[in-house]
Amino acid sequence: MANLNTNKNAKTKKDFGHEKIEILYSDETICVINKPSGLLSVPYPGSRIRTAQSILEEIMHKNGTFSSSHRPFAVHRLDRDTSGVMLFALTENAQKKIMDTWHQMVTERLYRAVAENPRSKKLILPDCGLIDDELAFNAHNVGFVPKESENSKNNSDSYGENRRLKTVPARTNYKILQSGPTHTLFELSLDTGKKNQIRAHLASKGYPLAGDENYRARTDHFGRLCLHARTLEFVHPFTGKKMKFEVPEPETWLEYVKKGDPNPKTPLWIESLKNSFDKKGERFHGKHENSLDLGQKRLSKKDRAHMNFIEAGKKGRK
């Protein structure tokens, strides 16, 4: 499935394809960086695309510090469109030690996010709390909180196939820092580090993040996903020293939330959906422009045979 944010970044990001990382700290065993939005953290299998890891490798090559045993090893990751503080190990031994002791080693990990306000006042969240709904993943590995009806034991399709979804535990602590007329600024911390966790949890409560294509946000004022990994505090895996790294989110986020956005420009993904009307004026697939269609009914093989591979991927679930 084509990623509209990737197409948008190619048109609007001045440094698209040439993104730079900022090294906040480095020694013989670890490296802490500030990753920009729009850059993958690490490569996926078979990919040769530019990533934060590959850029760090290039820097180490230039500095003469790269070798087969001294190079970046992933210990966690940030979503492509999430910016902020990220840690790499520089040896296999460091990688293993960090990953084996991650929950004891990391003492604080904070995110900041700008989310759209719910359409109904009944959905407004308290000033702070915990979201602990379990997550499921669709055919494109996008996380979401399934509705009760989607995960019912008696949820079978017309072919008698049980569609009970596999879910994983997820816990997100949140605090509202600023409520505005159209958006809210959140501070968040994770008890679990599941893919898309913050985005899926807030969207499930009626708060999709601004600029979030996957969860069909209605606003994209900054031309990026408004999620930033602001703080990472941990105990050094070898020296035992307590270390804290903090990169503030853009100041314009708070200004935007306070002011509000009563007349937002239509995001690229909504424009794309508007162009998918059929001749009768009905929306393609009957999908609402502001919702992510994650729990649709499973299609039969016969139905799939009459669909192209993109449509099948959107409508079905492996």
Automatic annotation (TrEMBL):
A Pfam family recorded for this sequence: PseudoU_synth_2
Keyword Isomerase tagged: yes
Keyword Isomerase: yes
Entry-linked InterPro entries: PsdUridine_synth_cat_dom_sf, PsdUridine_synth_RluA-like_CS, PsdUridine_synth_RsuA/RluA, RluA_PseudoU_synthase
Keywords in alphabetical order: Isomerase
Family the entry assigns: Belongs to the pseudouridine synthase RluA family.
Official protein name in the record: 23S rRNA pseudouridine1911/1915/1917 synthase
Taxonomic source organism: Treponema berlinense
Classification lineage: Bacteria, Pseudomonadati, Spirochaetota, Spirochaetia, Spirochaetales
